[in-house]
Write a structure and sequence with these properties.
Alpha-Beta Plaits
């Protein structure tokens, strides 16, 4: 990749322009025509650098309840447990992280369905193993933005992009039309000069009306952002880890906010602690090697003066998909 490639990748993973000709808009900041930008982005898809360009929704704002779940599964029951968990369409990620609770998955349940009852049913189907429900009590950071720029390359020379919204303002109206739009824009953006025109045609909407609606959803936090999801490994980030700290309650906010300032941290949450799992502050970190992740975890722990932590590294990936909302 050259400098231009890195600048484009940095730009589109932060916020893809919600305008009629987004490629021309990206090109304006680089003194490049839209056709060249489109050609380059097509090459990123061919090289698997970019997984998808689409809407990233605040599931809670759409009436879904979601959380992280940890399960303690012995080796003999692992395959059956994973199969049972992965059958549920609201499970988007499922990993093996060797520790006391070794199976970690994320789940979202639709409006009107009980999260607790769904997890309990999955736990029974998986073998009845000890399970922790770990909802986000407070969110400090929620943005998977990988540092793809080399030192000295600066930032994209156009506007500064606002960080993704942590909470929604206002309410999502689950009309038939709005649900159709969600189901459309959560898919991969067509790589043509006027991609939103293609989507609008399929939705029987005016292009500008669709763009205005998506912009409104971003402004109100219903959509966290419209952006590219990069393939971590293909762009050089071959390692990641979930760092968990046992943090005194009175320090949670200050420490969570401090961790959120580090570029290596993509997600940071306050989650409940338990007697046999006292960790209540969570951060996802990304690096170019496991050694780099461990070094980052140590640096973060020093920054908040807390050495009561573990680095949970994923050793197996059982499931990793984009959650499809309104699947039923």
């Amino acid at each position: 990749m050259d400098t231009i490639d890195r600048l484009i990748l940095d730009r589109i993973q932060r916020a893809f322009p919600l305008v009629a000709d987004p490629f021309e808009s990206i090109g304006l900041g680089l003194e490049m025509d839209g056709e060249e930008v489109l050609r380059r982005i097509e090459s990123y898809k061919d090289l698997k650098l970019v997984r998808q360009i689409s809407a990233i929704f605040n599931t809670g704002a759409l009436g879904y309840r979601s959380c992280l779940v940890a399960m303690a599964v012995p080796e003999r029951g692992l395959d059956a447990a994973v199969e049972a968990i992965n059958r549920y369409p609201g499970v988007s990620h499922n990993y093996l992280r060797p520790c006391k609770y070794n199976v970690w998955y994320t789940i979202a349940v639709p409006p009107g369905q009980s999260l607790e009852e769904t997890v309990a049913a999955l736990s029974q189907e998986a073998g009845g193993w000890p399970t922790l429900i770990l909802p986000a009590i407070r969110k400090y950071k929620l943005a998977v933005v990988l540092d793809v720029l080399d030192e000295g390359q600066g930032e994209f020379p156009q506007e500064t992009m606002a960080p993704a919204s942590l909470e929604a303002v206002g309410r999502f109206l689950p009309t038939i039309e709005n649900i159709r739009v969600v189901k459309c824009v959560q898919e991969d953006l067509p790589l043509v000069k006027r991609p939103f025109l293609v989507w609008a045609g399929g939705l029987d909407m005016e292009e500008q009306r669709l763009l205005d609606l998506l912009t409104d959803w971003v402004n109100r936090g219903i959509m966290r952002r419209f952006a590219a999801i990069l393939n971590h490994r293909q762009v050089g980030f071959s390692a990641n880890g979930m760092v968990v700290w046992s943090c005194p309650e009175e320090r949670l906010d200050q420490d969570g906010k401090k961790l959120a300032t580090f570029n290596e941290v993509s997600h940071c949450y306050h989650r409940p602690g338990f007697s046999d799992w006292p960790y209540n502050l969570y951060a996802m970190i990304h690096g170019r090697s496991l050694d780099e992740c461990y070094a980052t975890a140590s640096r973060l722990s020093a920054a908040i003066d807390n050495r009561d932590f573990q680095v949970l590294v994923s050793t197996r990936e059982f499931k990793k998909i984009r959650l499809k909302l309104f699947w039923d």
